[in-house]
Design a protein that fits this description.
Helix 1 packs across helix 5, helix 2 packs across helix 4 and helix 6 packs antiparallel against helix 7. By secondary structure, the protein is of the alpha+beta class. It has nine helices and 25 strands. The chain has two domains: 169 residues, no CATH class; 131 residues, Beta Barrel (L,D-transpeptidase catalytic domain-like).
Length: 346
Amino acid sequence: MGRKARIFGAVAVGVLVLGAVAAYGYDASRSHLISDGVTINGVEVGGLDTEQAEVLVRKQVVEPRRRAIRVEADGETFTLPARDLKVRANVSGAVEDALDASREGSLPERVFRQITGGSDPREVTLDVQWSRPALNGFVREVADGVYVAPRDASVEPGPESLTVVDEADGQKLRDNLLDSELESILAGGPYRPVVKGRTRVLKPSVTRAEVSGAYPTYITVSKASYTLTLWKDLEVAAQYPVAVGSPDYPTPDGLFSIQDKQVDPDWHVPTSDWAGDLAGTVVPGGSAENPLKARWMGIYGGAGIHGTDSIYSLGTAASHGCVRMAVDDVIALYDQVDVGTPIYIG
């Protein structure tokens, strides 16, 4: 029994040695191959040698990212040329890392896995790099292209009308979201040839329901009908006959506001042939020689609204650019108008 045991032990040792040598040889014969289950940025490279793996990874990971990026937003397509992105990646280094990962573990573990067809799932990350300034500039281009400012409800004045213009929503690109999606794609995430740019709604600050509160008082002057209209909450509150500037000294057209208010104002006589001997002088308020009767509401460039005792001039173009009113009317208007009240003349 002792001799048989020794023979059996020697045979067993020989078998183990032969097995180890065979295992070592088998493992060595596959040392150039990447193990099953190893992926590079999601691409299965198991069973491939380094050259084959490089070709596959370049084809599936790098080359798609060396194409133009397209973003569809608000019915438009925006394109970032590939040459601007300057995509680059160390594919050889990632493949070597995959091969190194395949050699991890003990010899018996590797051989058992190889013989049984088992896999050892491992993910190797390929660091894809690109031009951050180019991507930032592209996202700004898309943002600028789709931006629509919200429009507040407003009043569109005419010489004898006030029309409310409805509010409108605006929109803004969700630029942080787009940047994150593009960055994920470029970094090696799931590739998409076209990315959808999403927007969010921008609400106006003033709605139609609120616009009348923004214009509690308004004045319009029609030079054609010689009429001043006082509006309260965008409704006609009163209308007055007026005189306006003569053809040589026209009342200014446009949208202005009441700049100042005075009771019995001094008259700073314009330096003009129209003023005769009074040109360039100051006539005290309340005097008989002062044509600015009772009240003054300044508008623009020396022109204003004032009372007159030349009632016959109402309904004509006769002044030196001012809007003339009957004294009782200008006093009534004065008490209902604040500095800053808008006035449209046309």
